[in-house]
Amino acid sequence: MKTIRTLAALAFGSFLILSAPACKDKEKASGEKPKGEELVNVYCSGPEYFTTKEKFRANAIGESLDQMTSKKKALSNARAELAANIQTTMKVVGDNYVKSSEFNNKEEITETFQENARTVVDQQIQGVRTICEKQTKTVEGKYKTYIAIELGTQELLKAYNERLSNEEQLKADYNYEKFKETFDKEMEKMSNQ
To answer: Where does the record locate the signal sequence feature (predicted)?
Structure first.
């Protein structure tokens, strides 16, 4: 019995001794950066700048020899990203809303929803709010602007509702509460990603 315990203790001790270098190798490997690569800190990005159920958000970078041009590029890129994200979301919401409703002319109604989404996004994107802006100057003398913007989902939903409520083709079939419920579900999915 004593020899079995001794053998077990020796086996366990050997296991610890043999596995210790392997653990150090793993730690070393995960803590080191790959050769030829450098970790880059991107301003105005990260989890606090992700889209939530309350806000659509986007970030971008602009670079130029002129400081104002770098800012304009960053803002333009961020707006384009924001618009694309909103349009994608509104397409999914519109498709899901039409599918869950009993419309006889689904294809026509879906197209109307998508047209309205494009119009509303184009109008609303002008009202975005800048939530982060940083500028740096590179060693080449260029200006680099990092920017993050946001647009409230409720403002977008309100504008979209006004547009849909005035649409002759949808007046009889459009149900704002059902549409809002579909929209909220989609935003909740985005927040959980």
So the answer is: 1-22
**From residue 47, how far is each of 43, 50, 188, 191, 192 by CA, in Å?**
12, 5, 16, 11, 12
Q: Measured between alpha carbons, how far is 50 from 187 in angstroms, rounded to an integer?
A: 12
Task: Round to whole Å and give the CA distance between 5 and 11.
Answer: 10
Q: Decide if 89 contacts 151 (C-beta within 8 A).
A: no
Question: 139 with 62: CB under 8 angstroms?
Answer: no
Inside any domain, residue 54: yes
Task: Report whether 147 contacts 62 (CB < 8 A).
Answer: yes
- 119 is a domain residue: yes
Whole-structure pTM value: 0.70
Residue 125 belongs to domain spanning: 47-185
Q: Provide the domain count of the chain.
A: 1
Asked if 86 contacts 102 with a C-beta cutoff of 8 angstroms, the reply is no
Residues near 92 by Cβ (< 8 Å), separated by ≥ 6? 186
Scanning the chain, the segments in alpha helix (DSSP H) are 2-31, 67-100, 106-124, 153-165, 176-191
Q: 138-151: per-residue pLDDT in tens?
A: 999 999 999 999 99
Whether residue 109 lies inside any domain: the answer is yes
